[in-house]
Model the fold of this input.
Amino acid sequence: MKAFWAFIKKEYYHIIRDPRSLLILIGMPIVQVILFGFAITNEIVDAKISILDKSKDQLTQEISNKILSTKYFLLSEYLESAKQIEGSFRKGKIKLALVFEENFAEKFNRKERPSIQIITDATDPNTAATLTNYINKILLDYQNEISISTIAPKGIEVITRMEYNPQLKGVYLFVPGTIVIILMLISAMMTSISIAREKEKGTMEVLLVSPLKPFMIIAGKVIPYIALSLINAFTILLLGVFVFGLPIRGDYFLLLFEITLFIITSLSLGIFISTLVKTQQEALLISLMGLMLPTIILSGFIYPIESMPRILQYISHVIPAKWFLIMIRNIMIKGVEISYILKETLILLGMTLVLMVLSVKKFKIRLE
Amino acid sequence: MIVEQNPIRDKIMAEKTNDSKYVVSVKDLTKKFGSFTAVNKISFDVTKGEIFGFLGANGAGKTTAIKMLIGLSKPSSGTAIVAGYDVIKNPEKVKYKIGYMSQKFSLYDDLKVFENIRLYAGIYGIPSKEIKSKINNLIEELGMEDMRNKLVGDLPLGWKQKLAFAVAMVHDPPIVFLDEPTSGVDPITRRQFWEMIYKASEKGITVFITTHYLDEAEYCTRASIMVDGVIEALDTPTKLKENLGVKSMQEVFVKLARG
Amino acid sequence: MSNIFLNINNISKSYGDIQALKDINFSVDEGELFGLIGPDGAGKTTLIRILITMLLPSTGDASINGLDVVKDFKKLRHLIGYMPGTFSLYEDLTVEENLKFFATIFNAKIKDNYHLIKDIYQQIEPFKDRRAGNLSGGMKQKLALSCALIHKPDILFLDEPTTGIDAVSRVELWDMLKKLKEQNLTIIVSTPYMDEAELCDKVAFMQKGEVMEINTPHQIVEDYDTPIYAIKGDSFYNLLLALRKMELTRTAFPFGESIHLTTYEEFNENELNKIICDYSNQKTETKRIKANIEDCFMAKMLKNK
Done:
């Protein structure tokens, strides 16, 4: 046991005596949150739109005004015919066009569900989807308003994914996403590099010749990084809550538990990588290409998984970050309980166990 | 791609360097890192065709001094003229005029023997017309005809070493710097390597060499021993031994370096 | 009486097509200072790594104090002290932290075994708060040796402890090894420097994965039976070339300030000198000498070719 503590102490020295890396490790989460928060915001303001109102009644007028009165949209022009729509897009003037069908108000009053056609510029699918969501939301609000006043509710379509994020604020997306990336980066990459460094420098040889058990070497490597990762998770959460006004509706202990679980999953991944490589460079490459990119792309952090090709959706199942992201979003934004995310928790636990068994098995007690 | 015309090289090669009999001329050369003086006012001259042994304990400042002489590190003060150029004013020109072989041999293991030669010939700006004959001559001289198309990584250490030496001199420099070239090599190969050094020296090429094998110090025309940033002794091996009344360079070294 | 401490039986090791070790057999007595002498690529490191249980032999077996290096590796790891060629210290830890760390992972206390490393460690103790990365080569070597000894091993393996180290530190290291030997520690040391062979009790000459010779340095030199002469001349290189061309020459190699010449038959010093003098057109000096270890190694190498 004493040997184990000595090992942890040594790891701790390695981390704090490399001020440059430490600064990056502690500073990176802060920089990332701020970057995502301010620069890469998902909110779009002042998008130009055109409106083709074939009905020109009071109801369409009200809806148009409602839409244009938000900060999201600016009117480019009223169109006279459908032929003008394409031209309007071509000129690059507008991001979106609204088409009200004929006899809109009449149909509405007859409870026939009149339609509004939304045409977007899908060359930029993210913007298009966001703008469509804004419009849907505005329409929904409007429907609610009049349903209260006129008692004529009909065919209200609830768009669930907006329910917990009424302003579609980017902060709900990027804070959990940043936690995922940072934890993955620090836990998996740093452990794999730190083990590879001992192999490169030849110190691993001496450790192996010593009576230290392989499990102790692995655990000793991992524990300081659990601490570091937790500090980072807290930093990001605090920034999210106090700077960007992110709510944490769920149980704090549940959140802490799931975060710790994901850290251990990532650490196991890191150790597993280190059993495959000989040099720090290899460890870095595999962590970056094999972990970071799939995590960013396939976890659902930036691109919604539902809109991916079937095959990528299947692949996303093996990405631990995907499951973690589902859980953490649910806890923070919906405030759900453990029973609601039991499946995801178990999947992550299973992954961790498999990785740990594989690592301890693959961790060589000799040099070949 | 091989550069057909290399104005810098042509100019440097055509330039008549001042006809000093010294290939290396160092005066009060100093290098400081902060408050630490790694090399402290060293002065010496090396004549043409000399085999100059540059000895010293680990951390005595040898490597720092060599880095200054080959234009990789800027001296804090003092002057050094190498192959006719001032290393402070013209470090780039110095580089064209010297050969350098490090412990690690600086050959590419994943290139073939002739490709390595071609590469370095290209780097030093040898016209492509001449490169082909240069490769053939070199390979023949080394007796490596049957290894021409082998990857350097597959060569035995001794051959690598010989090739590295030849490649370091591919541009016919007046001086070649060898940094511990014989580390870990078997005694026969080590001697064969020294014969290459003699041969180069006979042709008038100056050889500037560092080594931890002190029997090799005996083969030098003159040897200097650096201790704590200064040159403690510089003379022929025979004189050095006589002065200290000892029998071998090993004893000379231990006596001086222990201080 | 001496008893066998380390025993190696027919050990071979191959990596794919490459045979790193071919059929190695020898034994080392308790308390012996044993040298593995040979150039890079001779297989010294591979052999040491098999003995310290880091590598598995392809065939054959070895035992240390009766414990098999494959089956009993866990027990053996308590008995072994090992200093790899790269010194393997943590450069960002201080001298003292390194020593403490290596003591603790071997379940040892510094104060229990301090007497073992006292002579060595005292020399670096003034710098105990300095990071290992900032030590000179010689000091690093002393620290690494202290770390390898702190758990009081029964057998110490040193892989090329003197490579890249200056002559002064080399002399110091061998002095330390001599002292350690007095405590009845068995020491296996590998080196490419032939002159260090003379400082061992017994040596194995290794070349290309094979052991060419095992004996005491004294006996190896005694067994050398080729006539050998040291020749000095005014023009060293020309003399060498001339000697190479002479018919009486077996081999001619530079050796310090003279050339060592071996011949097919015995000559009188003066007669030989006259022949060489006439042939090479320069003033020469010839002496019949006793071969040194390096002469012996080269002779073995040439014979094995």
About this structure: The longest helix of chain C spans residues 110-124. Chain C has two domains: 4-216, 224-303. Chain C is about 35% helix and 30% strand. The domain at 224-303 of chain C is CATH 3.30.70 (Alpha-Beta Plaits).
